[in-house]
Amino acid sequence: MKKIILLFMMIMTAQSFARSPSRTTPAPAAQPTAPARVEATPAQAPRSLFQQLNSSWPEEIESQLKDQFQRPIINPQKSYVFIFAYAPKEPMDLRSGELLKQSVQNRLMNKSDGGHMMFGWQCQNPTSPNENFRFFKGMAAITGESSGQAVDLLRNGWGMNSYLASFTDGALQTPENLRTVIQNQIIQNRATFSFFLQEVTDQDCMKGLVFLNQFHLKPANTDPVQFRFGSMHDPGDAQAPGAGCLSFGYHFMKTVGLFPSAQPYFERTLTIPEWLLGYGRTDDQGRPLKKNEAGEDVVIPNVQIQTALTPDRRERISFHTLMNMRSWNPWGNERTLEIKQVDPELVYLFFRELGGEIAKKFNQAGYALTTNQQAHQNILNQLRHRRTIRGTDYQQDQFLREHLVETGFDNGYVLSNDPRFANNTSRGNSEALANESRKWVQDNFSVYKTYLIPFFHEYAIISVNHL
């Protein structure tokens, strides 16, 4: 613990960080509303960004965190972390190249955007000799690819390189930025989401803050374009720093110690033929090009192609050809590429399974989820009717909520012996995650310390006071 505190203080002191809000001293004067994009010189960026990230939680979240008697769940003297993720309306199905192709077609046809993962913290650091560094509360996420560059790449011959590309317009989102995201995506659009909050040790919470500071202080992330955004980036990789919103949130989860035994099952490996990558036209500086409305060549902005293709294998793959192929699966002995990443569908699956197991425990113990009968029934309906946010085929293959049946208010959710799954050998990670959710509930559940609470139009999972 002393090593973590010392490292954290050295990072912040070296950069002359501004003081974050403290519960023991008067709050600093109100700052101007943070812009959607933090623009600053390299010397200013770490200081102002850290201050904005630690500007507490949006009121929309704070107001929801009440127990069944409308008492605040959060203790100002404890440390907590939370994960808040909303799902895309069209999933990116990573089970096979064929299903990935269907996902891409559906997204383009419906003009569907992606989901998003955010995370937050309330960290106590009581042993710090500097009172300025004893309390931190904030929220963060990363965003990028702000002008639809991936679709431009796909339509201009780059094939799956559009998926592997790095976008140099990435930006860390502050609580103020994320408040707008919550208002637009959660409240107005009523997106399907998962919210999980857990009490953690002060030490684990501070590990998360150390990770966040080290990430945004890396030399490659302190130029005027501060962050590299892309689904293939590993935020823990010192050689190629960057992140997608999912990998950023997932790395935070690992750092603070959430669900360590379940973590291996969130990842999936997709194998595609190498020729799917494609290599479109570039200017004399190697920047990808597209045609504008006047038919002129213009640069697709803020893109770094991460292709593994050697120069002799770089060929353009037309959008028409790509979309009219029967499958994107490997056909024979051609060269292939393995893409390993966290599958967002498996993340949503796990939190849905966790909610179902907690509801079952409450019912078995004879306790209501909330004193409000309508709110109680709404939560049960969410678990029953929103068995998944995906299509029926994805439900069955991923062993989602089809194996749970509602048998009434008294009995809650129980495992089904549905014969449709008797010979299903493709459950894989999804079945493992269902087992992990049951193990977590067995080890952590208490009717006085675990909550399923109404949260906007869905529910939140809260786990407190287990330490």
In brief:
With 467 residues, the chain is of the alpha+beta class. Helices cover 34% and strands 18% of the residues. The strands form four sheets. Strands 1, 2, 3, 4, 5, 6, 10, 14 and 15 form a nine-stranded mixed β-sheet that branches. Strands 7-11 form a two-stranded antiparallel ribbon.
Which structural class best describes the helix and strand composition? alpha+beta
| Main β-sheet description | 9 strands, mixed
In percent, how helical is the residue content?
Answer: 25-40%
Shape: globular
Strand content: 15-25%
Q: Total number of helical segments?
A: 14
Topology:
Elements lengths: L1 H13 L30 H9 L5 H4 L16 E8 L10 H14 L5 E9 L10 E9 L5 H7 L5 H4 L1 E8 L1 H14 L4 E8 L1 H16 L9 E3 L15 H12 L10 E7 L15 E3 L5 E3 L3 E2 L14 H6 L11 E7 L1 H22 L7 H13 L6 H6 L6 E3 L6 E3 L12 H17 L5 E6 L2 E6 L4
Helix pairs in contact: 1-8, 8-9, 11-14
Commentary on this structure:
Strand 14 (450-455) and strand 15 form a beta hairpin. Strands 1, 2, 3, 4, 5, 6, 10, 14 and 15 form a nine-stranded mixed sheet that branches. Residues 13-47 and 386-426 have low confidence and may be disordered. Helix content is 34%, strand content 18%. The longest helix is centred in the C-terminal third of the chain and has 22 residues, at 344-365. Helix 11 packs parallel to helix 14. The chain contains 14 helices and 15 strands. By secondary structure, the protein is of the alpha+beta class. The protein has helices at 2-14, 45-53, 59-62, 97-110, 149-155, 161-164, 175-188, 202-217, 245-256, 319-324, 344-365, 373-385, 392-397, 428-444; strands at residues 79-86, 116-124, 135-143, 166-173, 193-200, 227-229, 267-273, 289-291, 297-299, 303-304, 336-342, 404-406, 413-415, 450-455, 458-463. It has two domains: 2-147 and 169-260, no CATH class; 344-445, no CATH class.
